[in-house]
Design brief:
CATH superfamily of one domain: Cytochrome c-like domain
CATH topology of one domain: Cytochrome Bc1 Complex, Chain D, domain 2
Structural class: mainly alpha
CATH architecture of one domain: Orthogonal Bundle
Distance between the termini: 49 Å
Bound molecules: heme C
Shape: globular
Strand order of the largest sheet: 2-3-4
Number of strands: 7
CATH class of one domain: Mainly Alpha
Strand content: under 5%
C-alpha cells in the first residue's frame, strides 16, 4: 500500500511537471494523457487482471473442457429443467446474445416458439397470466464473468455472501441465517432458484403448490429417471454425471439430484470468463492498446467530478467495474413489476433492494452491474428501459431530466407501461430525497459535451472482449447433440436478427 502511494505520488509529480512544462505538440499531449491514466490506475488499485479477484478469493476459474463444465453446459441448455419443458437457462442467457437475451424483459415459460430467442420471442396468448407483454419483471443480466462477483447475485442481491462465509438465499430461515443448502459459491446458490420461478422455468402447471425442496427433488429425479421422475425423459444423463463427479460406478440416485445439478450449472457459468479486452491490456502496461478517444473516455470515467471527470468509478469500481453495492439510480420502471404497492395501489412497482432488507431507505436501490462487455448486453438497467448505451449513460448525468422525456416506444412491443409515469416518479423522488440527505454517490451537475459523451462510450467499448463477436470462439459454450450425448429437450436456439 505504502509503495503504491509513493509510486503514484511520483507519477503525479511527473504529470504535474508535464503540465507545467506547457508542452503543446499532439504527441506530448497523448503522453500526458497516458501518464494521467497510469497515475489513476495506480491510485485506484486497478490491475488489468480481473482474474486476480477470483484468485484472491481463494477460488479458481474452471476450464471449458472440465467434465463438470460440460455437464453444466448440457443442463444449462436443457428444457428438461423447465417444469413444462418450455424453457432452459439458455433461453434467457445465451452465449450468442452476450450471455443475456437481447430483450427489454424476458419471456420464460410458454413462449409462442420456445426455441426463438431475442426480439420476436413472445408468450403464447393462451398462457396462464398472459397480459400481452413479457412475463418476467426484470431484465436478464449476463452470466458472463459472474465468477467475479464476491458479494451478491441478482439485481437486488438476494443471493448474498455472509460475513460468516455462508450464503444467504431466499430459502434462508431468516435475514441473518445462511442457507445450509446453498452450496460453495454464489453461482451454485443462485442456480437453485430459476427453476422455482413459475414465469421463468417452473410453469404454472408443474408441481403446483409444492415446496421448493419437493420441486427440486422432482427435477433431480426427472434428470436421473428414478422415483417420481421416472419415465419423464428418454435421455441418459448418467455418463455425464459419472464423468463430472469422477464416480464411474455411481448410480443415478447417488449422483443425480438438484445439488449436483446446481454445482454443474455453476461451474459452466463460472467458466464464462471473458475479459481479454483493450482496457485490460492497457492497464497491464501496453500504451497502444487504447485509441486516443478511449483514453480520453477513460479519464472521464475514472476521474472525480471535482477534477473534471464524470465520477463513474465511485460505483463501477475495481477491475470488475462494480462495487457490488446498492444505489438509487431511478431508471424508468416498466414491465409487470414485482408487486410492490406504491401507495396508489399499483402492483407494477419494483422496490429493488428493499424487497430483501425491508428498509424503506433501500427502496429503488439496485446492485451496480459490471460494465465488462456492456456493449453486447442491451437493453440496459434492471427493467431494460434503455435500448441504447448512450441513453443509459445519459440517465446517470441527468436522471430527473431523462425520466421526464423517457420514450417508452424503445421498449419491446407489448412491454407493460401502464404505470410507467407514477412508478418512475416515485423512484425519482426517492433519488431526490437521498441526494438531499447526502445519501447518494451519484454525482450531480456533471455535464458532458457530445464529444465527451462519445469519448466515454468509446471507453465502454474498450471493455468488450472482441472474441465474443466470433461465434466460433463461443462454440465450446454452446450445447449440441452428438454421438456422446443427446438431449431430446436441447434448446436449439434460433434468432430472428
Ligand atoms: C425467463 C428468463 C430466465 C431464465 C429461464 C433464467 N434466467 Fe437467470 N436471470 C433472469 C433474470 C430476469 C435475472 C435477474 C433477476 C433479478 O435480479 O431479480 C436473472 C439472473 C441470473 C443470474 C444473476 C446474474 C447477476 O448478475 O447477478 C444468474 C447467475 C442466472 N440468472 C443464471 C441462471 C441459471 C443458471 C438459469 C437456469 C437454471 C437461469 N438463470 C434461468 C432471467 C432468466
Ligand atoms: C451511484 C453509483 C453509480 C455511479 C456513480 C455510476 N453508476 Fe452506472 N449504474 C449504477 C447502478 C446501480 C446501475 C443499475 C441501475 C438500475 O438498473 O436501476 C447502473 C447501470 C449502468 C449501466 C447499465 C448497465 C447494464 O448492464 O444495464 C451503464 C452502462 C452504466 N451504469 C454506466 C455508468 C457510467 C458511464 C457512469 C459514469 C457517468 C456511471 N455508470 C456511474 C450505479 C452507478
Amino acid at each position: 500500500m505504502r509503495l503504491l502511494f509513493t509510486l503514484s505520488s511520483a507519477l503525479l509529480a511527473v504529470v504535474l511537471g508535464a503540465c507545467l512544462g506547457g508542452s503543446s505538440g499532439a504527441k506530448d499531449h497523448s503522453q500526458e494523457v497516458d501518464l494521467q491514466l497510469r497515475a489513476l490506475i495506480l491510485q485506484l488499485g486497478l490491475t488489468g487482471r480481473p482474474e486476480q479477484i477470483v484468485e484472491d478469493d481463494g477460488r479458481t476459474i474452471p476450464e471449458a473442457d472440465d467434465p463438470l463444465v460440460m455437464l453444466g453446459k448440457h443442463l444449462f441448455f436443457s428444457k428438461s429443467l423447465g417444469g413444462d419443458f418450455t424453457s432452459s437457462c439458455a433461453s434467457c442467457h445465451h452465449p450468442l446474445l452476450g450471455g443475456a437475451d437481447a430483450l427489454t424483459l424476458p419471456v420464460g415459460v410458454e413462449a409462442m416458439d420456445p426455441d426463438l430467442l431475442g426480439p420476436g420471442r413472445v408468450q403464447l396468448s393462451t398462457a396462464i397470466g398472459y397480459d400481452g407483454g413479457p412475463n418476467v419483471p426484470r431484465n436478464s443480466p449476463t452470466t458472463f464473468n459472474i465468477v467475479l462477483y464476491k458479494q451478491s447475485l441478482f439485481w437486488d442481491g438476494r443471493v448474498q455472501r455472509h460475513t460468516d462465509g455462508g450464503i444467504f438465499t431466499p430459502d434462508s430461515a431468516g435475514p441473518t441465517v445462511s442457507d445450509p443448502n446453498a452450496g460453495p459459491t454464489l453461482a451454485a446458490a443462485q442456480a437453485r432458484f430459476p427453476v422455482t420461478s413459475e414465469d421463468e422455468m417452473k410453469s404454472h402447471s408443474f408441481e403446483t403448490g409444492s415446496t421448493r425442496a419437493v420441486l427440486r427433488g422432482h427435477l433431480g429425479a426427472r434428470i436421473g429417471r428414478y422415483g417420481m421422475g421416472a419415465g419423464e425423459i428418454p435421455d441418459d444423463w448418467l455418463p455425464l454425471f459419472r464423468a463430472a463427479f469422477a464416480s464411474p460406478l455411481g448410480t443415478s440416485q447417488e449422483l443425480i439430484h438438484y445439488d449436483t445439478i446446481a454445482l454443474a450449472l455453476a461451474a459452466y457459468q463460472e467458466s464464462q470468463f471473458f475479459a481479454a479486452n483493450a482496457w485490460n491490456r492497457f492497464a497491464t502496461g501496453i500504451p497502444g492498446a487504447l485509441t486516443a478517444q478511449q483514453k480520453r473516455g477513460a479519464l472521464l470515467f475514472l476521474r472525480d467530478p471535482a477534477y473534471g471527470g464524470a465520477g463513474c468509478v465511485s460505483c463501477h469500481s475495481g477491475d470488475f467495474f462494480t462495487d457490488e453495492e446498492f444505489h438509487i439510480l431511478a431508471f424508468p420502471q416498466i414491465g409487470r413489476g414485482k408487486g410492490d404497492l406504491n401507495g396508489q395501489g399499483s402492483p407494477t412497482q419494483d422496490w429493488g433492494r428493499a424487497r430483501v432488507t425491508g428498509a424503506p431507505t433501500d427502496r429503488f436501490k439496485f446492485r451496480t452491474p459490471t460494465l465488462l462487455n456492456v456493449e453486447l448486453t442491451a437493453p440496459y438497467g434492471h427493467s431494460g428501459a434503455y435500448d441504447s448505451l448512450a441513453d443509459a449513460v445519459r440517465h446517470h448525468l441527468d436522471p430527473v431530466g431523462m425520466n421526464a422525456i423517457y420514450n417508452w416506444t424503445q421498449a419491446d412491443p407489448g412491454t407493460q407501461v401502464f404505470d410507467l409515469i407514477l412508478n418512475t416518479q416515485e423512484a425519482t423522488q426517492a433519488l431526490i430525497s437521498a441526494r438531499a440527505a447526502g445519501a447518494s454517490r451519484l454525482p450531480q451537475g456533471v455535464s458532458l459535451t457530445s464529444a465527451e459523451l462519445a469519448d466515454l462510450l468509446a471507453f465502454l467499448q474498450a471493455l468488450t472482449d472482441p472474441r465474443l463477436r466470433d461465434p466460433a470462439f463461443l462454440e465450446p459454450w454452446i450445447a449440441r447433440n452428438g454421438a456422446e450425448f443427446s438431449d431430446s429437450q436441447l434448446l436449439d436456439a434460433r434468432f430472428s436478427q
